[in-house]
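My convention is simple: the sequence line spells out the residues, with the fold written below as integer tokens. I include a record here:
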Amino acid sequence: MLKPFEVHVQAGSLSCFQPELTAADWESLQAHAEQARDRMGGRTFWNVNSTARGGGVAEMLPRLLAYARGAGVDTRWMVVEGTPDFFRITKRLHHALHGSRGDGSPLGSAERACYDEVLRDNAEELLVLVRPGDVVLLHDPQTAGLAPALAAVGARVAWRCHIGRDSPNAEVERAWAFLAPGLAAARLAVFSRAAYVPPLLADRSVVIPPSIDIFAVKNQPMAPEVARAILGHTGLVGPVPELPAPVFTRMDGVPARVSRGADIVRLGSAPAPDVPLVVQVSRWDSLKDPVGVLRGFALLLRESPGLRAELVLAGPSVTSVADDPEGAATFESVIAEWREQPRLLRQRVHLACLPMVDPEENAAIVNALQRQAAVVVQKSLQEGFGLTVTEAMWKARPVVASAVGGLQDQVRHEVDGLLVRDPSDLPEFAAAVRRLLDDPLLSARLGAQAHEHVRTRFTAARHLSDFASLLRELDVRARP
């Protein structure tokens, strides 16, 4: 029998935000925290998703919930378990909500039966824990079918969808038809963009953009020489003598050392530390278009053979993300494309699977890689939001992103990054990357403005205030 498991979260103080906020914003955050604490007295705020590591949701939740606990709200995180068939179906739904066919498999009665059976097993354990009046926030297609059982015992259920497509098509409609029975029991639905809201949820939806925790290991300050030491140890750049130890600070304040290396497909040696790096860090997902990034970089080098730059495509170890059964196949497709390229190109492209055994170590490696990047790209074909771009912008890195989904909510073209209007347009993508590599002043200006844009709009402080408003709205809708 499948049972969900709890991920334990330690409380975190809100006081770390005070130096980063204006006096008015700090006062507002404290007021929202007090309101949430009073509103949730004697009740629990549950968050339920399908993986404890890998992807934006698993990264956002622990920090947001830690701050909520620090504010006095009893907040807990549960992760549902599933079978390989279940995760194949939910990956199909993931693609469909982006308007893509994915593997093209059906979403019929057999898939419905499998989906319902897995969630019925998980619901049995949750129903022992969840009490009437508790708030349950379900995340993404993997959990939507839990809503009826939880609502039936008196929980105030909301469902958060982190993905979507601006212009619905037949695949999007197919996904909503599959999810509709479960979502009928959700009191509210939360979306990252208003354009993602389907008609069936139009009368009970709110928009809350995602956020990053600027104090997390992935986003904490890191000296350039420490970043190079970490990347040298993992094999992502060549070693440099007399660098400091590859260390970072864990969330509990304890210093730690990066001890694991990355698994890297390359021809020849690691890039020299002074070589400009074009970097994309993402899950190995076809919608992130890593093959397209490789082809775009190949075009860039063909058009500018004297350009001194190398490409790093990085993602998690392909066996580490429980709810993504397609990661290994996507990675293999990238390797196959790499093998088709001329030798000279293969020497300048590095395919890296980053260790995930220790999530904070992984975060430190990503932090170092993003800070070392001359340009961070996110050439997604569809993108729910794209927190890897948010992270890079916080680090004042110049970014090139596709003008799709939530990426266009973050990157204002020519203001704090460059947008590629058509993600399949390789010449446009290559030209944008070349422009940033050629113009350090432009890169610095866009990076500085990107950092400020994230500081004011996409941090956990704003997100926590949005959570407080969500709790208030759920209570209002509970009134007879």
User: Anything to note?
Assistant: The two ends are 38 Å apart (CA to CA).
